[in-house]
Amino acid sequence: MIEEMTTVLEPSPLPDFVETKYIKDIVNRALSYIKAGFPVHFRGGSGTGKTTLAMHIASKLKKPVVMIHGDEELTTSDLTGGEHGYRFRKVVDRFVSRVLKLEEDMVKHWVDNRLTLACRYGFTLIYDEFTRSKPEANNILLSVFQEKMMDLPMGRGGEESYLKVDPEFTAIFTSNPEEYAGVHKSQDALRDRMITMDLDYFDYDTEVAITQGKSKLSRSDAEMIVNIVRGLRESGKCEFAPTVRGCIMIAKTLKTQGITPAKSNGAFMAICHDILSSETSRIGSKTNQNRVKKVVKGIIEKELGMGKTRNLA
């Protein structure tokens, strides 16, 4: 039992989690679906806060959490459990002094994995990027959600072959719909058993609040950074649109260096160029770098014209 519990996390509120009206609406809707007894699925591109939201909601449920990360090599036994090692038993009978009686037996040792633990004890399961796992590995989830039963292998040391899922069991899934290596289409039967919430880029106020909260920069400096990232995103000139992660990287770098956009002596422009060029292109082409530099410079000049900052580039 102690070995099993080492895979369990104790949820706690994230210390720097930013909860704006936009975020609260998503959280409240997700909690209402969970309360009604349905698993929730956050689907969205990179940087839309899927995993962070899943962890935040899990903390509000105030139950132990088990976490699984989707992987191409994951199998059903990696979810439910398997036979690992052996148990030996030896009985020595010396009741009659001149007679020695020995009995030995050996049985395989079954160890529950994370899905079985969550179902048995009513924990919260977070299955991050579940579409990275092969669909056949996730088939075990169909009966878990529909019949509230888990079909386990025979010969588990006398234990039950069917596990009744605890009523408190909760599941939160995340996935990225982008087509990239290692992603599988989720089977319709599984998708039909969960409520999918599609996540997009955060609204302006939320991006500013997150940028400021993660970096501790001033509101005006956070707005400046968000305006640059959103301007680049809306320009439609990048291979990949930058996300709030770009805002956080720029803001934290400025904070670490102890500078502000208005007093960077050109460093702010270089930081934006480095971070946003890498975030918006997979291969790092010169064409993309020049596009990013041109768009960022134009936005900075526009901000300068509004009298918000000085000496940016």
Quick recap of the structure?
The protein has 313 residues and is of the alpha/beta class.
Fourth-level CATH superfamily of the largest domain: P-loop containing nucleotide triphosphate hydrolases
How many domains would you count in the coordinates? 2
Give the name of the CATH architecture of the largest domain.
3-Layer(aba) Sandwich
DSSP summary, beta strand count: 9
Provide the CATH top-level class of the largest domain: Alpha Beta
Major beta sheet summary: 5 strands, parallel
Distance between the termini: 60 Å
**Strand arrangement, largest sheet?**
2-5-8-1-9
Rounded to an integer in angstroms, the radius of gyration calculated over CA atoms is 26 Å
Share in helix: 40-55%
- Provide mean pLDDT, rounded: 83
Overall 3D geometry? elongated
Give the ordered list of helices and strands: HHEHEHEEHEHEEEHEHHHHH
How would you describe what is shown here?
With 313 residues, the chain is an alpha/beta fold. It folds into two domains: 2-80 and 113-199, 3-Layer(aba) Sandwich (Rossmann fold), CATH 3.40.50.300; 204-305. It has helices at 2-5, 21-35, 50-61, 76-80, 114-121, 140-146, 188-191, 204-215, 219-235, 244-257, 267-279, 286-305; strands spanning 40-44, 65-69, 81-93, 101-112, 124-128, 149-151, 162-164, 170-175, 195-199. The strands form three sheets. The chain has a five-stranded parallel β-sheet, with helices on both faces. Strands 3-4 form a two-stranded antiparallel ribbon. The radius of gyration is 26 Å and the shape is elongated. Residues 1-5 and 307-313 have low confidence and may be disordered.
